[in-house]
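PROTEIN DATA CARD
Card holder: Carboxylic ester hydrolase
Chain length: 426
Origin: Neurospora crassa
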Amino acid sequence: MKFSTRGRHSLSLQPYHPSTSLLFGRTNPSLTTMKFSSFASGLLALGASLASAAEVVKRASLQQVANFGSNPSGVKMYLYVPNKLATKPAIIVAIHYCSGTAQAFYQGTQYAQLAEKYGYIVIYPESPYKGTCWDVSSPASLTHNGGGNSNSIANMVTYTIKQYGADASKVFVTGTSSGAMMTNVMAATYPELFAAASVYSGVSAGCFATGTVNGWNSTCSQGHSIHSQEEWANVVFNMYPGYEGPRPRMMIHHGSADTTLYPQNFNETLKQWAGVFGYTYGQPQQTLANQPASGWTKYVYGPNLVGAYGTGITHATPMFPEDDLEWFGITGNNNNNNNASPSKAAPPATTHAAAVAAPTTTLLACVRPSTAPATPSSAAPAAPASKGGCTVQRWGQCGGNGYTGCTACASSTTCKKMNDWYSQCV
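Structure generated from the sequence above:
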């Protein structure tokens, strides 16, 4: 905002003039009062204008922030600041899917709409790569301060906390598909930043590792990366060596009919975070039918880990933003706004011993009780349906090297190549 020289002069006191400033050799108090009153009003108006000029982004609309600090991997930052911004607001980082954008995720989810009601800020990162998947495969992104996508997103968080005086203890992250993979990675690489996370149709942190930037890992996507909870937990610990502080509470969603990121990834993700928090995988404290919606089952391992498994749900998993807000502690009775207890603490008394299971190479070695989520198989997941007579729904996989499943996309969608290993119906 610019201020003209003329405008600044209009706020100055007028030159002394004896015919108007003195009465019988003394200053006219009413005229002096009027001029100082005008001067003060002008200063107030100028201050308001300066405050407006200092506003980082226009409120109640999605705005790009170009300079948020170090951005080693070129991720774009978009910000939504509600009109009714809370004092020391919370922050939600909402991460889009492959082929998505910040704008699409802003329009396609309710986080911004609910921000007007609850006063929090939403950060929408945008992938810099063709196909807009996230880099959840390179050492840079899978390491704390490694210089990858995770590093750039973390810098968006610290920038927003500083610019808006946000509550650093109320920062949360969520995402779907590739964004869900990045959500797990953010929780693993920057545990000190986040209080809780909600994951929709993702894979374990580190499961997609290829050693390359923005790589595709078919072994992981098809559910063949099967390890013990101890092994998976060590993957998390190795992303931030030496960190012993609190870690974000995790809520994991997945569908039984997902043929893009196979349902086995739900089990592996639960194993990973069960190992981190000291729970025993396959032994939830509670099993709740038809939550968060009909056809879903919720598995509550404790205050730090919840899984939700949707029967018949494809990769296009519905998101439950109001449930997320309750999990985050922004609404409802969940008052645990601070990060969860340290990762290596003993599990709650209602679970088994503190030691996690011995390392294994396949899930077959893990004995699962009847309350464990149903999956196509306890070994490798079933292969996708054959190409003939089947249709892939929006966001599902429709091609790629080594892919043998359906290639016909549902009405109003087309099969788009994201990389050599993955094509998606969009």
